[in-house]
Amino acid sequence: LSTAAAAALLAVSATGAVAACDEGEMVIKFSHVTNTDRHPKGIAANLLMERVNAEMDGTACMEVYPNSTLYNDDQVLEAMLNGDVQMAAPSLSKFEQFTKVFRIFDLPFMFKNIEAVDAFQASDAGQEMMQSMARRGLLGLGYWHNGMKQLSANKPLNEPGDAAGLKFRVQPSEVLKAQFEALDASPQPMAFSEVYGALQTGVVDGQENTWSNIYGQKFFEVQDGTTETNHGVLDYLVVTSTDWWDGLDEGVREQLNTIVTEVTNERNAAVAEVDAEARQAVVDAGGEIRELDDAQRQAWVDAMMPVWEQFTDDVGQENIDAAQGINA
Ligand code: LMR
């Protein structure tokens, strides 16, 4: 173990999140960047670990490393290709180096809610996207939901003009950069683990994220308030390396795949509840939430939607039409 990995292991062991693996068991490392409670990904990853460790005892053992303790999202896919980690669930905005198909999920106001996202992902087009990186060595095993994104800054954001001139942290996505440029704001790609500090010190003025991330990272503490825009979606791809996956014994692969699918279905069905609880937790902790009336919301739609045109070729008009058909 490297010093960093050993430190991470110790840190995670203190929270009880890492299971002790027995001699002879295949170790499956799952690395992610969020907190573990009141968080869709944190809860799903821990449930996956519990089930693998109970049902595949003696064969396989999963260790979950949350909170960027092992890798950031910009490192984890390389680490996976090197065989240093076997599973992760980065947001769909984090695959730019590998594929452009997921850009559809970043386009603002493309999906009206998480049910629409779910239906699109379940369609043939959505299922095929999970294979889109196979020749680059990465395979999607399922989509995990988080929720719709909200917008916050160190000043009130009521209309699109309020964002002009501000710096916003973005995930490393060309679509998200273009979205903030459309607001005459300045996008700053940054790792998730660095956002709180950057907001606190004024390196950036604002950010966009879901309620569970805003709550989990306490962004509301260092922002003026959060505007409930629901302007985009943040969802995850459970991803593994094709080499590792193809190298598993067939029975092991099938059992693991079944567990992943069952955990995916169970936790995705519960995501609205986790999202609502995180939103309420922000309120309870004193975070200010600004709701938009219809006219205000339409102004954000009008300001952001022109971004679609820039990415139609990447995502395919037929996929945009399919997504819009689901919204209707
Ligand atoms: C972000 O970087 O804001 C998110 O992708 C973090 C996460 O995993 O939810």
TrEMBL record:
InterPro entries: DctP_fam (IPR018389), TRAP_DctP (IPR004682), TRAP_DctP_sf (IPR038404). This is DctP family TRAP transporter solute-binding subunit. It comes from the Bacteria. It is found in: Periplasm. Gene3D superfamilies: Bacterial extracellular solute-binding protein, family 7. The lineage of its organism: Bacteria, Pseudomonadati, Pseudomonadota, Alphaproteobacteria, Rhodobacterales. Residues 1-19 form the signal peptide. Belongs to the bacterial solute-binding protein 7 family. Its main location: periplasm. It comes from Litorisediminicola beolgyonensis. Keywords: Periplasm, Signal, Transport. The keyword Signal applies. NCBIfam families: dctP, TRAP_S1. Pfam families: DctP.
